[in-house]
Amino acid sequence: MAELKEISPDAPAAAKLMNWVDNRFPASKLYKEHMSEYYAPKNFNFWYVFGSLALLVLVIQIVTGIFLTMHYKPDAALAFGSVEYIMRDVPWGWLVRYMHSTGASAFFVVVYLHMFRGLIYGSYRKPRELIWIFGCAIFLCLMAEAFMGYLLPWGQMSYWGAQVIVNLFAAIPFIGPDLALLIRGDYVVGDATLNRFFAFHVIAVPLVLLGLVVAHLIALHEVGSNNPDGVEIKAHKDANGKPLDGIPFHPYYTVHDIFGVSVFLMVFSAIIFFAPEAGGYFLEYNNFIPADSLKTPAHIAPVWYFTPYYSMLRATTDDLINVISVILGLAVVFAFIKGKFNIGLKVAMAVAVVVAILLLKSLDAKFWGVVVMGGAVVILFFLPWLDHSEAKSLRYRPDWHKYVYAVFIFLFLILGYLGIQPPGVWGSFSLGHFLTLDIAQTISQIGTLFYFGFFLLMPWWSRQGTFKPVPDRVTFAAH
Predict the structure, then answer these.
(1) Which of the four pLDDT bands, split at 50, 70 and 90, describes residue 272?
(2) Distance between CA atoms of 237 and 257, rounded to whole angstroms?
Protein backbone atom coordinates (compact mmCIF):
# COMPACT_ATOMS: atom_id res chain seq x y z
CA MET A 1 0.00 0.00 0.00
CA ALA A 2 1.36 3.44 -1.01
CA GLU A 3 2.15 5.88 1.76
CA LEU A 4 -0.44 8.66 2.14
CA LYS A 5 0.82 12.18 1.39
CA GLU A 6 0.33 14.69 4.17
CA ILE A 7 -0.68 18.32 3.60
CA SER A 8 -0.48 21.39 5.85
CA PRO A 9 -3.57 21.95 8.05
CA ASP A 10 -3.50 25.58 6.87
CA ALA A 11 -3.74 24.65 3.17
CA PRO A 12 -6.78 25.90 1.18
CA ALA A 13 -9.83 23.64 1.07
CA ALA A 14 -9.30 22.96 -2.66
CA ALA A 15 -5.72 21.77 -2.01
CA LYS A 16 -6.91 19.51 0.81
CA LEU A 17 -9.59 18.03 -1.45
CA MET A 18 -7.06 17.44 -4.23
CA ASN A 19 -4.65 15.80 -1.79
CA TRP A 20 -7.45 13.52 -0.54
CA VAL A 21 -8.23 12.50 -4.14
CA ASP A 22 -4.54 11.98 -5.05
CA ASN A 23 -4.10 9.63 -2.10
CA ARG A 24 -6.84 7.45 -3.53
CA PHE A 25 -6.66 8.07 -7.30
CA PRO A 26 -3.65 9.38 -9.34
CA ALA A 27 -5.48 12.44 -10.73
CA SER A 28 -2.54 14.88 -10.47
CA LYS A 29 -0.11 12.24 -11.71
CA LEU A 30 -2.25 11.55 -14.80
CA TYR A 31 -2.63 15.29 -15.44
CA LYS A 32 1.14 15.79 -15.31
CA GLU A 33 2.01 12.73 -17.42
CA HIS A 34 -0.50 13.44 -20.16
CA MET A 35 -0.90 17.22 -20.10
CA SER A 36 1.37 19.62 -18.23
CA GLU A 37 4.55 17.49 -18.34
CA TYR A 38 3.89 15.70 -21.61
CA TYR A 39 6.36 17.36 -23.97
CA ALA A 40 5.24 17.64 -27.59
CA PRO A 41 7.39 18.96 -30.47
CA LYS A 42 7.27 22.74 -30.71
CA ASN A 43 6.85 22.72 -34.52
CA PHE A 44 3.32 21.30 -34.71
CA ASN A 45 1.29 22.89 -37.51
CA PHE A 46 -2.29 23.02 -38.77
CA TRP A 47 -2.34 19.28 -39.54
CA TYR A 48 -1.96 18.36 -35.87
CA VAL A 49 -5.40 19.60 -34.81
CA PHE A 50 -7.42 16.75 -36.34
CA GLY A 51 -6.67 14.21 -33.60
CA SER A 52 -8.34 16.37 -30.95
CA LEU A 53 -11.19 17.14 -33.37
CA ALA A 54 -11.78 13.41 -33.83
CA LEU A 55 -12.04 13.07 -30.05
CA LEU A 56 -14.51 15.98 -29.95
CA VAL A 57 -16.72 14.44 -32.66
CA LEU A 58 -16.64 11.09 -30.84
CA VAL A 59 -18.05 12.81 -27.75
CA ILE A 60 -20.70 14.58 -29.86
CA GLN A 61 -21.75 11.26 -31.43
CA ILE A 62 -21.99 9.47 -28.08
CA VAL A 63 -23.99 12.26 -26.40
CA THR A 64 -26.40 12.80 -29.31
CA GLY A 65 -26.71 9.03 -29.77
CA ILE A 66 -27.83 8.62 -26.15
CA PHE A 67 -30.59 11.19 -26.64
CA LEU A 68 -31.70 9.60 -29.92
CA THR A 69 -32.01 6.13 -28.34
CA MET A 70 -34.46 7.59 -25.80
CA HIS A 71 -37.05 7.97 -28.58
CA TYR A 72 -35.95 5.59 -31.34
CA LYS A 73 -37.83 2.28 -31.84
CA PRO A 74 -35.68 -0.56 -33.31
CA ASP A 75 -38.69 -2.16 -34.98
CA ALA A 76 -39.20 -2.46 -38.75
CA ALA A 77 -42.80 -1.25 -38.41
CA LEU A 78 -41.95 1.70 -36.15
CA ALA A 79 -38.35 2.79 -36.91
CA PHE A 80 -39.05 5.29 -39.70
CA GLY A 81 -41.98 6.77 -37.77
CA SER A 82 -39.89 7.13 -34.62
CA VAL A 83 -37.26 9.12 -36.56
CA GLU A 84 -40.02 11.37 -37.91
CA TYR A 85 -41.34 11.73 -34.34
CA ILE A 86 -37.86 12.80 -33.18
CA MET A 87 -37.64 15.33 -36.02
CA ARG A 88 -41.14 16.81 -35.61
CA ASP A 89 -42.40 16.34 -32.06
CA VAL A 90 -39.47 15.88 -29.66
CA PRO A 91 -38.27 19.27 -28.36
CA TRP A 92 -35.00 20.06 -30.17
CA GLY A 93 -35.11 16.52 -31.59
CA TRP A 94 -34.38 17.82 -35.10
CA LEU A 95 -31.20 19.47 -33.82
CA VAL A 96 -29.99 16.31 -32.04
CA ARG A 97 -30.71 14.18 -35.12
CA TYR A 98 -28.93 16.60 -37.47
CA MET A 99 -25.97 16.86 -35.08
CA HIS A 100 -25.70 13.06 -35.15
CA SER A 101 -26.05 12.70 -38.92
CA THR A 102 -23.68 15.60 -39.66
CA GLY A 103 -21.33 14.29 -36.97
CA ALA A 104 -21.02 10.98 -38.81
CA SER A 105 -19.72 12.75 -41.91
CA ALA A 106 -17.59 15.13 -39.82
CA PHE A 107 -16.02 12.12 -38.10
CA PHE A 108 -14.82 10.71 -41.41
CA VAL A 109 -13.64 14.12 -42.64
CA VAL A 110 -11.37 14.66 -39.61
CA VAL A 111 -10.22 11.00 -39.52
CA TYR A 112 -9.30 11.04 -43.24
CA LEU A 113 -7.34 14.28 -42.70
CA HIS A 114 -5.72 12.84 -39.56
CA MET A 115 -4.61 9.76 -41.51
CA PHE A 116 -3.36 11.93 -44.38
CA ARG A 117 -1.17 13.85 -41.94
CA GLY A 118 0.26 10.57 -40.66
CA LEU A 119 0.91 9.51 -44.25
CA ILE A 120 2.83 12.62 -45.34
CA TYR A 121 4.90 12.98 -42.15
CA GLY A 122 5.66 9.28 -41.64
CA SER A 123 3.88 9.04 -38.28
CA TYR A 124 3.55 5.25 -38.77
CA ARG A 125 7.33 4.67 -38.81
CA LYS A 126 9.37 3.22 -35.95
CA PRO A 127 8.68 3.52 -33.00
CA ARG A 128 5.03 4.43 -33.73
CA GLU A 129 3.88 1.31 -35.56
CA LEU A 130 1.43 0.34 -32.82
CA ILE A 131 -0.10 3.83 -32.77
CA TRP A 132 -0.81 3.48 -36.51
CA ILE A 133 -2.24 -0.04 -36.11
CA PHE A 134 -4.59 1.13 -33.35
CA GLY A 135 -5.58 4.07 -35.57
CA CYS A 136 -6.38 1.77 -38.52
CA ALA A 137 -8.42 -0.45 -36.19
CA ILE A 138 -10.33 2.68 -35.09
CA PHE A 139 -10.97 3.48 -38.76
CA LEU A 140 -12.28 -0.05 -39.35
CA CYS A 141 -14.57 0.21 -36.30
CA LEU A 142 -15.82 3.58 -37.54
CA MET A 143 -16.77 2.02 -40.86
CA ALA A 144 -18.68 -0.78 -39.09
CA GLU A 145 -20.37 1.73 -36.77
CA ALA A 146 -21.39 3.99 -39.66
CA PHE A 147 -22.69 1.11 -41.77
CA MET A 148 -24.83 -0.29 -38.96
CA GLY A 149 -26.11 3.15 -37.99
CA TYR A 150 -26.99 3.88 -41.60
CA LEU A 151 -29.68 1.16 -41.56
CA LEU A 152 -31.46 2.51 -38.47
CA PRO A 153 -33.53 5.34 -40.06
CA TRP A 154 -35.18 2.57 -42.16
CA GLY A 155 -35.49 4.76 -45.24
CA GLN A 156 -35.25 3.56 -48.83
CA MET A 157 -31.50 4.08 -49.15
CA SER A 158 -30.87 2.61 -45.68
CA TYR A 159 -32.79 -0.54 -46.56
CA TRP A 160 -31.43 -1.08 -50.07
CA GLY A 161 -27.89 -0.04 -49.17
CA ALA A 162 -27.85 -2.67 -46.41
CA GLN A 163 -29.34 -5.19 -48.84
CA VAL A 164 -26.55 -4.62 -51.37
CA ILE A 165 -23.68 -4.62 -48.86
CA VAL A 166 -24.88 -7.69 -46.93
CA ASN A 167 -25.39 -9.58 -50.20
CA LEU A 168 -21.75 -8.96 -51.05
CA PHE A 169 -20.77 -11.35 -48.27
CA ALA A 170 -22.78 -14.05 -50.06
CA ALA A 171 -20.15 -13.92 -52.85
CA ILE A 172 -17.53 -15.49 -50.55
CA PRO A 173 -17.04 -19.14 -51.62
CA PHE A 174 -18.41 -21.90 -49.34
CA ILE A 175 -19.31 -19.76 -46.30
CA GLY A 176 -20.81 -16.74 -48.10
CA PRO A 177 -24.54 -17.59 -48.03
CA ASP A 178 -24.41 -18.70 -44.38
CA LEU A 179 -22.40 -15.59 -43.43
CA ALA A 180 -24.92 -13.29 -45.14
CA LEU A 181 -27.74 -15.12 -43.34
CA LEU A 182 -25.94 -14.70 -40.02
CA ILE A 183 -25.48 -10.95 -40.59
CA ARG A 184 -29.09 -10.40 -41.67
CA GLY A 185 -30.61 -12.74 -39.07
CA ASP A 186 -33.21 -13.63 -41.71
CA TYR A 187 -33.43 -14.46 -45.40
CA VAL A 188 -34.07 -10.80 -46.20
CA VAL A 189 -33.13 -7.52 -44.53
CA GLY A 190 -35.90 -7.11 -41.97
CA ASP A 191 -36.77 -6.71 -38.33
CA ALA A 192 -34.09 -9.14 -37.12
CA THR A 193 -31.42 -7.22 -39.09
CA LEU A 194 -32.58 -3.92 -37.65
CA ASN A 195 -32.46 -5.23 -34.08
CA ARG A 196 -28.98 -6.69 -34.31
CA PHE A 197 -27.60 -3.66 -36.14
CA PHE A 198 -29.10 -1.44 -33.41
CA ALA A 199 -27.45 -3.54 -30.68
CA PHE A 200 -24.07 -3.41 -32.40
CA HIS A 201 -24.35 0.30 -33.24
CA VAL A 202 -25.36 1.35 -29.72
CA ILE A 203 -23.40 -1.04 -27.48
CA ALA A 204 -20.90 -3.47 -29.00
CA VAL A 205 -18.95 -1.39 -31.53
CA PRO A 206 -18.79 1.81 -29.38
CA LEU A 207 -17.25 -0.19 -26.51
CA VAL A 208 -14.56 -1.57 -28.83
CA LEU A 209 -14.09 1.89 -30.35
CA LEU A 210 -13.59 3.55 -26.96
CA GLY A 211 -11.09 0.86 -25.94
CA LEU A 212 -9.11 1.40 -29.15
CA VAL A 213 -9.12 5.19 -28.69
CA VAL A 214 -7.70 4.79 -25.15
CA ALA A 215 -5.07 2.34 -26.45
CA HIS A 216 -4.21 4.76 -29.29
CA LEU A 217 -3.66 7.63 -26.84
CA ILE A 218 -1.68 5.53 -24.35
CA ALA A 219 0.61 4.28 -27.14
CA LEU A 220 1.03 7.86 -28.41
CA HIS A 221 2.00 9.24 -25.00
CA GLU A 222 4.36 6.32 -24.38
CA VAL A 223 6.60 6.97 -27.42
CA GLY A 224 5.80 10.65 -27.97
CA SER A 225 4.34 12.57 -30.88
CA ASN A 226 5.88 12.76 -34.34
CA ASN A 227 6.38 16.17 -36.00
CA PRO A 228 6.53 17.64 -39.54
CA ASP A 229 10.31 17.08 -39.67
CA GLY A 230 10.12 13.46 -38.54
CA VAL A 231 12.84 14.19 -35.95
CA GLU A 232 12.83 12.50 -32.53
CA ILE A 233 12.81 15.29 -29.93
CA LYS A 234 13.85 12.89 -27.15
CA ALA A 235 17.32 12.67 -28.71
CA HIS A 236 18.24 16.12 -27.35
CA LYS A 237 17.41 16.86 -23.69
CA ASP A 238 18.44 19.49 -21.17
CA ALA A 239 19.97 18.88 -17.74
CA ASN A 240 16.53 18.15 -16.30
CA GLY A 241 15.78 15.51 -18.91
CA LYS A 242 13.29 17.69 -20.80
CA PRO A 243 13.42 17.70 -24.64
CA LEU A 244 15.06 20.86 -25.95
CA ASP A 245 12.64 20.96 -28.89
CA GLY A 246 9.56 20.14 -26.83
CA ILE A 247 6.98 22.25 -25.04
CA PRO A 248 4.34 21.16 -22.50
CA PHE A 249 1.12 20.04 -24.14
CA HIS A 250 -0.78 22.22 -21.67
CA PRO A 251 -1.17 25.14 -22.01
CA TYR A 252 0.45 25.51 -25.44
CA TYR A 253 -1.35 22.88 -27.47
CA THR A 254 -4.58 22.97 -25.50
CA VAL A 255 -4.89 26.60 -26.68
CA HIS A 256 -3.87 25.49 -30.19
CA ASP A 257 -6.60 22.83 -30.14
CA ILE A 258 -9.22 25.19 -28.66
CA PHE A 259 -8.70 27.48 -31.65
CA GLY A 260 -9.10 24.52 -34.02
CA VAL A 261 -12.20 23.38 -32.16
CA SER A 262 -13.71 26.89 -32.41
CA VAL A 263 -13.24 27.00 -36.19
CA PHE A 264 -14.58 23.44 -36.54
CA LEU A 265 -17.69 24.20 -34.45
CA MET A 266 -18.48 27.26 -36.56
CA VAL A 267 -18.36 25.17 -39.76
CA PHE A 268 -20.20 22.28 -38.07
CA SER A 269 -22.96 24.62 -36.83
CA ALA A 270 -23.30 26.29 -40.25
CA ILE A 271 -23.88 22.89 -41.89
CA ILE A 272 -26.38 21.79 -39.22
CA PHE A 273 -28.48 24.96 -39.45
CA PHE A 274 -28.23 25.76 -43.16
CA ALA A 275 -27.41 22.55 -45.09
CA PRO A 276 -27.81 19.41 -42.93
CA GLU A 277 -28.40 17.23 -46.00
CA ALA A 278 -25.36 18.78 -47.77
CA GLY A 279 -27.07 18.47 -51.13
CA GLY A 280 -27.86 14.80 -50.57
CA TYR A 281 -24.29 13.80 -49.64
CA PHE A 282 -24.79 13.67 -45.85
CA LEU A 283 -28.47 12.65 -45.92
CA GLU A 284 -29.74 11.21 -49.21
CA TYR A 285 -33.18 12.36 -50.31
CA ASN A 286 -34.29 8.74 -50.86
CA ASN A 287 -33.79 8.17 -47.15
CA PHE A 288 -36.72 10.48 -46.38
CA ILE A 289 -38.96 7.83 -48.00
CA PRO A 290 -39.98 4.81 -45.84
CA ALA A 291 -38.23 1.53 -46.70
CA ASP A 292 -40.13 -0.46 -49.33
CA SER A 293 -38.92 -3.97 -50.16
CA LEU A 294 -41.00 -3.94 -53.36
CA LYS A 295 -39.63 -0.71 -54.83
CA THR A 296 -35.92 -0.47 -55.64
CA PRO A 297 -34.42 3.05 -55.99
CA ALA A 298 -33.16 3.93 -59.47
CA HIS A 299 -29.58 4.21 -58.18
CA ILE A 300 -28.23 2.68 -54.96
CA ALA A 301 -25.00 4.12 -53.57
CA PRO A 302 -23.43 4.22 -50.10
CA VAL A 303 -22.73 7.42 -48.15
CA TRP A 304 -19.81 9.50 -49.48
CA TYR A 305 -17.22 8.20 -46.99
CA PHE A 306 -17.60 4.63 -48.30
CA THR A 307 -17.68 5.51 -51.99
CA PRO A 308 -13.94 5.20 -52.79
CA TYR A 309 -14.07 1.56 -51.69
CA TYR A 310 -17.43 1.03 -53.41
CA SER A 311 -15.84 2.35 -56.62
CA MET A 312 -13.09 -0.26 -56.26
CA LEU A 313 -15.75 -2.93 -55.81
CA ARG A 314 -17.56 -1.86 -58.99
CA ALA A 315 -14.28 -1.53 -60.88
CA THR A 316 -13.41 -5.18 -60.25
CA THR A 317 -14.76 -6.78 -63.41
CA ASP A 318 -13.57 -9.66 -65.60
CA ASP A 319 -11.64 -7.12 -67.68
CA LEU A 320 -9.72 -5.88 -64.62
CA ILE A 321 -9.03 -9.48 -63.58
CA ASN A 322 -7.52 -10.06 -67.03
CA VAL A 323 -5.36 -6.93 -66.70
CA ILE A 324 -4.14 -8.02 -63.24
CA SER A 325 -3.32 -11.48 -64.64
CA VAL A 326 -1.26 -9.90 -67.44
CA ILE A 327 0.55 -7.64 -64.90
CA LEU A 328 1.41 -10.67 -62.75
CA GLY A 329 2.66 -12.55 -65.81
CA LEU A 330 4.86 -9.62 -66.90
CA ALA A 331 6.18 -9.24 -63.36
CA VAL A 332 7.39 -12.86 -63.21
CA VAL A 333 8.97 -12.56 -66.68
CA PHE A 334 10.77 -9.39 -65.52
CA ALA A 335 11.93 -11.21 -62.37
CA PHE A 336 13.37 -14.04 -64.49
CA ILE A 337 15.23 -11.67 -66.80
CA LYS A 338 16.35 -8.89 -64.45
CA GLY A 339 15.89 -10.33 -60.97
CA LYS A 340 18.98 -11.10 -58.87
CA PHE A 341 17.39 -14.18 -57.29
CA ASN A 342 18.59 -17.77 -57.47
CA ILE A 343 16.85 -20.09 -59.93
CA GLY A 344 14.95 -21.92 -57.17
CA LEU A 345 13.33 -18.70 -55.94
CA LYS A 346 12.49 -17.68 -59.51
CA VAL A 347 10.75 -21.00 -60.14
CA ALA A 348 8.85 -20.70 -56.84
CA MET A 349 7.72 -17.17 -57.84
CA ALA A 350 6.58 -18.46 -61.25
CA VAL A 351 4.58 -21.29 -59.65
CA ALA A 352 2.99 -18.84 -57.17
CA VAL A 353 2.00 -16.47 -60.01
CA VAL A 354 0.49 -19.33 -62.05
CA VAL A 355 -1.56 -20.44 -59.02
CA ALA A 356 -2.64 -16.82 -58.41
CA ILE A 357 -3.75 -16.38 -62.04
CA LEU A 358 -5.70 -19.67 -61.92
CA LEU A 359 -7.44 -18.49 -58.74
CA LEU A 360 -8.20 -15.10 -60.29
CA LYS A 361 -9.75 -16.72 -63.35
CA SER A 362 -11.64 -19.49 -61.54
CA LEU A 363 -13.49 -17.38 -58.94
CA ASP A 364 -16.24 -14.88 -59.71
CA ALA A 365 -15.27 -11.22 -60.23
CA LYS A 366 -17.90 -10.25 -57.63
CA PHE A 367 -15.94 -12.17 -55.00
CA TRP A 368 -12.69 -10.46 -56.01
CA GLY A 369 -14.52 -7.14 -55.78
CA VAL A 370 -15.27 -7.88 -52.12
CA VAL A 371 -11.61 -8.88 -51.62
CA VAL A 372 -10.41 -5.64 -53.26
CA MET A 373 -12.80 -3.51 -51.19
CA GLY A 374 -11.69 -5.16 -47.93
CA GLY A 375 -8.05 -5.27 -48.97
CA ALA A 376 -8.05 -1.51 -49.61
CA VAL A 377 -8.59 -0.99 -45.86
CA VAL A 378 -6.54 -3.94 -44.55
CA ILE A 379 -3.45 -2.91 -46.53
CA LEU A 380 -3.24 0.27 -44.43
CA PHE A 381 -2.29 -1.86 -41.40
CA PHE A 382 0.94 -2.92 -43.15
CA LEU A 383 2.10 0.58 -44.09
CA PRO A 384 4.85 0.76 -41.39
CA TRP A 385 6.59 -2.21 -43.04
CA LEU A 386 6.00 -1.14 -46.65
CA ASP A 387 7.69 2.27 -46.44
CA HIS A 388 11.48 1.87 -46.74
CA SER A 389 12.42 5.51 -47.37
CA GLU A 390 15.42 7.10 -45.68
CA ALA A 391 13.38 10.05 -44.36
CA LYS A 392 10.15 9.86 -42.38
CA SER A 393 8.71 13.17 -43.49
CA LEU A 394 7.76 14.01 -47.06
CA ARG A 395 9.65 17.31 -46.54
CA TYR A 396 12.99 15.57 -46.95
CA ARG A 397 12.09 13.04 -49.62
CA PRO A 398 12.72 13.59 -53.36
CA ASP A 399 10.37 16.16 -54.88
CA TRP A 400 8.81 13.62 -57.25
CA HIS A 401 7.54 11.67 -54.21
CA LYS A 402 5.20 14.60 -53.56
CA TYR A 403 3.68 14.12 -57.01
CA VAL A 404 3.16 10.41 -56.30
CA TYR A 405 1.27 11.31 -53.11
CA ALA A 406 -0.68 14.04 -54.94
CA VAL A 407 -1.78 11.61 -57.68
CA PHE A 408 -2.74 9.06 -55.01
CA ILE A 409 -4.97 11.60 -53.20
CA PHE A 410 -6.44 12.92 -56.46
CA LEU A 411 -7.39 9.43 -57.68
CA PHE A 412 -8.80 8.55 -54.23
CA LEU A 413 -11.07 11.61 -54.44
CA ILE A 414 -12.07 10.70 -58.01
CA LEU A 415 -12.91 7.17 -56.83
CA GLY A 416 -15.06 8.72 -54.10
CA TYR A 417 -16.92 10.89 -56.63
CA LEU A 418 -17.48 8.03 -59.07
CA GLY A 419 -18.79 5.79 -56.27
CA ILE A 420 -21.73 8.17 -55.79
CA GLN A 421 -22.55 8.41 -59.51
CA PRO A 422 -24.59 5.86 -61.47
CA PRO A 423 -22.69 3.61 -63.91
CA GLY A 424 -21.95 5.24 -67.26
CA VAL A 425 -22.08 8.76 -65.82
CA TRP A 426 -19.40 9.95 -68.29
CA GLY A 427 -20.51 7.81 -71.22
CA SER A 428 -18.24 5.43 -73.13
CA PHE A 429 -15.70 5.35 -75.93
CA SER A 430 -14.91 2.72 -78.54
CA LEU A 431 -11.55 1.23 -79.48
CA GLY A 432 -12.33 -0.16 -82.91
CA HIS A 433 -15.39 -2.31 -83.54
CA PHE A 434 -14.72 -4.91 -80.84
CA LEU A 435 -14.07 -3.01 -77.62
CA THR A 436 -16.21 -0.35 -75.95
CA LEU A 437 -15.09 1.07 -72.60
CA ASP A 438 -17.17 2.87 -69.98
CA ILE A 439 -15.14 6.01 -69.20
CA ALA A 440 -16.06 6.17 -65.49
CA GLN A 441 -15.43 2.46 -64.98
CA THR A 442 -12.07 2.65 -66.79
CA ILE A 443 -10.98 5.58 -64.60
CA SER A 444 -12.13 3.63 -61.51
CA GLN A 445 -10.04 0.66 -62.64
CA ILE A 446 -6.98 2.87 -63.18
CA GLY A 447 -7.55 4.43 -59.74
CA THR A 448 -7.88 0.98 -58.13
CA LEU A 449 -4.65 -0.27 -59.74
CA PHE A 450 -2.81 2.89 -58.67
CA TYR A 451 -4.17 2.64 -55.10
CA PHE A 452 -2.80 -0.87 -54.62
CA GLY A 453 0.32 -0.16 -56.66
CA PHE A 454 1.07 2.81 -54.37
CA PHE A 455 1.28 0.47 -51.36
CA LEU A 456 2.52 -2.80 -52.88
CA LEU A 457 5.35 -1.10 -54.79
CA MET A 458 6.23 1.23 -51.90
CA PRO A 459 9.17 -0.94 -50.71
CA TRP A 460 10.77 -0.16 -54.08
CA TRP A 461 9.74 3.38 -55.04
CA SER A 462 10.03 4.83 -51.52
CA ARG A 463 13.84 4.17 -51.64
CA GLN A 464 14.37 5.80 -55.03
CA GLY A 465 15.67 9.31 -55.67
CA THR A 466 17.96 11.74 -53.89
CA PHE A 467 16.89 12.51 -50.32
CA LYS A 468 17.44 15.87 -48.65
CA PRO A 469 19.49 15.98 -45.44
CA VAL A 470 17.31 15.58 -42.35
CA PRO A 471 18.18 18.09 -39.58
CA ASP A 472 19.23 16.90 -36.11
CA ARG A 473 16.81 19.32 -34.46
CA VAL A 474 13.31 20.37 -35.47
CA THR A 475 12.95 23.42 -37.71
CA PHE A 476 10.75 26.01 -36.09
CA ALA A 477 9.85 29.65 -36.71
CA ALA A 478 7.93 31.50 -34.01
CA HIS A 479 4.60 32.94 -35.11
Answers:
(1) very high
(2) 26
